[in-house]
Amino acid sequence: MIFSSALIENAVNEFARLPGIGKKTALRLVLHLLKQDPAQVKLFGEVVTRMRDQIKFCKICHNVSDQEICSICSNPSRNKALVCVVENIRDVMAIENTQQFNGTYHVLGGIISPIDGVGPEQLNIYSLVDRVQQQGIEEIIMALSPTIEGDTTIYYLSKKLKEFPVKITTIARGIAFGGELEYADEMTLARSISNRLPLESYVQK
Amino acid sequence: MIFSSALIENAVNEFARLPGIGKKTALRLVLHLLKQDPAQVKLFGEVVTRMRDQIKFCKICHNVSDQEICSICSNPSRNKALVCVVENIRDVMAIENTQQFNGTYHVLGGIISPIDGVGPEQLNIYSLVDRVQQQGIEEIIMALSPTIEGDTTIYYLSKKLKEFPVKITTIARGIAFGGELEYADEMTLARSISNRLPLESYVQK
Ligand SMILES: [Zn+2]
Ligand SMILES: [Zn+2]
After folding, report:
1. What residue intervals correspond to the zinc fingers (C4-type) (chains A, B) (predicted)?
2. Are residues B21 and B98 in the same domain?
3. Do B186 and B144 share a structural domain?
4. How far is the CA of A17 from the centre of ligand 2 (A)?
């Protein structure tokens, strides 16, 4: 692509670094911004920069947060004895969107996957064991994608938590095996949480 | 969509203002940026803001430019006696990408379209007449999309330029009637410029 303006070329290249944005789409976005008020474009740049600069990760659950403790963990009406373990913050958002879950979360930051070089030590597992040990958690819901890696992670966590008096459940298999949790529709996801199963029945199956 | 972070919610909303970017895509982009180095995200914001703040429009051809006069108009090896009239800067880029055209441009900034309330006075037509009158232009290539609005604009321009000793041509009809110039492949576009026709043969047809 040939540009007669370095300003535009640089902006197109920046947009084209984003996933799923090719050069043609990047150009379309840049030409759109060119028609906007400079103050609006400045706001766009500032909001995006501030988001990355100021974002924190909750000291309790590792969810993204504007404060040291996220708005879910600090909400007095959420059930702190019920913890939903998820792979990433997209899963938190997917479950929050169902508006059916009143517990809290624990974001692992990934899933055990030897092929990708992700072992338990790369994930937020110690802090989960700490929470169970120290905070009177009654139930852990394993809301991991129903894949081999998800099952491996559930198995590993259940061994780590075996010594504690905590009930471990898994979300109901409303989601097809191999399906991605975050792409499930809200109805399926809400139902699979309310129909959650004790871990034993899951492992036997 | 429910967010536990206002920082993320604001950034998603900003991305979702862009054309063709829905909330889901916006979230995907934001979560990608969240994984990038803050300095890289800051650069993204700065490059986009600077682009909008510092962009100029060439005083001769109305193309986007980093200077008062664009890099095409100020290039001594470009043929200043040959001017290609286009609707917008995307068309300039499309033709430049063919690397087959050595003249200069005149960006109208739109096309005559009474339905959309765009009349000749909204377009860069006076400055085109000025250029023809004062700068010894020998040939004007009408490179407008082959639509009714394109034809109307060509007809209007040809009347305005009738009194001057300038040859008016149109790009060859390699592009299907109703087709958008900017989406034509480079081969078709390059060929339709090199096979351009005198206006008379176009109007008769
Ligand atoms: Zn939290
Ligand atoms: Zn110019």
Report:
1. 58-73
2. no
3. no
4. 29
The total of structural domains in chain B comes to 3
Looking at the domain assignment, is residue B61 inside a domain? no
Higher pLDDT, A120 or B193: A120
The closest CB to that of A5, out of B21, B27, B65, belongs to B65
Same domain, A112 and A151: yes
CATH of the domain at B42: 1.10.8.420
ipTM over 0.85: no
Is the predicted pLDDT of residue A89 greater than 70, yes or no? yes
Mutate to test the interface with A, among B3, B5, B74 (most CBs of A within 10 A): B5
Judge if B82 and B165 occupy the same domain.
yes
Supply the pTM of this predicted model. 0.78
- Per-residue model confidence as pLDDT tens digits over B12-68: 999 999 999 999 999 999 999 999 999 999 999 999 999 999 999 999 999 999 999
Q: In sequence order, which residues have a C-beta less than 8 Å from that of residue A161 and are 6 or more positions away?
A: A128, A129, A132, A140, A168
Span A21-46, mean pLDDT? 95
Q: What distance in Å separates the CA atoms of residue A73 and residue A60, rounded to the nearest whole number?
A: 7
Query: B131-165, pLDDT tens digit by residue?
Result: 999 988 999 999 988 788 998 999 999 999 999 99
In terms of residue numbers, what domain contains A194?
176-205
* pLDDT (0 to 100) of residue A204: 47
| Centre of ligand 1 from the C-alpha of residue A59, in Å | 7
B55 with A66: Cβ contact below 8 A: no
Q: How far is B129 from chain A (nearest CA, A)?
A: 24
Angstroms from B163 CA to nearest CA on chain A: 32
List the single best residue of B1, B7, B54 to mutate versus A (max A Cβ within 10 A).
Answer: B7
